[in-house]
């Protein structure tokens, strides 16, 4: 049973969250109660406040308080007063169960994360399986014993990899260093969980396969487009030969499609990455908050080597590139901002054969 103070708090929260009789009628209906809110307004002279009080008394007498408050929470989950009441639901449920062990403890199922959809398991897993093939480990100095500078990248065209500019900066204007760079695809733990594939090596282009727009030519063949670290921190790198057209596990490797997607707090997010230069991993977490105009903060684990990784939404849209870690969270650059940046360079993209990026 509710204490007097909790009853008062509950009634005040309901009146604040649902200020018209029609709104309360919806809650009563959604709760599956064997009554209608109009029954509590039927007596002439009854005020809305009195009707809500009588409704609560009746709901409690029928041992239906828990489903009623859960329905109220689903109908208006943004009301702060109602949230306070809902935060007391768990101990209240246990109290009811102790008094009435014949009643179920709450409900068997409940949608607790609005905006988080169910995914078809086979379809989702098959799509992620295909997408992982487009990821690679970027190895700036593979002849050295150190893995310093190793990072992650992903194909955005058959022969173009996207990564952070702060990764590519180490060899961006240095042909001698560029010759040593390896981009290693398929470097992952085998399905048995025991062995590790050596992966498929690719190198950067040393001569042009397509001529850029006149007057806007990158200085070196491997350079397509980029943005400084302080801005969007991305670089598009041309490979010596196509990786996306290779056959892997019976199908074409392909590439990832950049998607402009707005982020909301608590949205699920996952990152395909090579943390600490390890075989390909996937890490799960949630968006903490978008930071306009071009950043997003999230709680997803990363390590050195994760820079340049693709950030995927729950429905596997490639919507950001991992940038780097902060003190309490990690940060990415949104593809929405990058696509907007690329849209202003349409002619150069066309000359480079990359117009599909903004199609």
Write up this protein.
The protein has 359 residues and is of the alpha+beta class. The protein has two domains: 4-99; 119-359, Thrombin, subunit H. 29% of the residues lie in helices and 21% in strands. The protein has eleven helices and 15 strands. The strands form three sheets. A seven-stranded antiparallel beta sheet has the order 5-4-1-2-3-7-6. It has a six-stranded antiparallel β-barrel with strand order 10-11-12-15-14-13. Helix 1 (4-17) packs across helix 3 (48-61). The longest helix is centred in the first third of the chain and has 14 residues, at 4-17. The radius of gyration is 28 Å and the shape is elongated.
Keywords:
359 residues; alpha+beta; Thrombin, subunit H; 2 domains; 7-stranded antiparallel sheet; 6-stranded antiparallel beta barrel; 11 helices; 15 strands
The largest β sheet comes out as: 7 strands, antiparallel
- In terms of quaternary structure, what is this? single chain
Question: Care to count the β-strands?
Answer: 15
Helix tally equals: 11
Beta-strand content estimate: 15-25%
**CATH architecture name of the largest domain:** Beta Barrel
- H-E string: HHHHHHHEEEHHEEEEEEEEEEEEHH
- How many structural domains can be distinguished in the coordinates? 2
Arithmetic mean of pLDDT: 88
Broad structural category: alpha+beta
User: What is the alpha-carbon Rg in Å?
Assistant: 28 Å
Helix content: 25-40%
Distance between the termini: 61 Å
CATH class of the largest domain: Mainly Beta
User: Biggest sheet: strands side by side, in what order?
Assistant: 5-4-1-2-3-7-6
CATH topology of the largest domain: Thrombin, subunit H
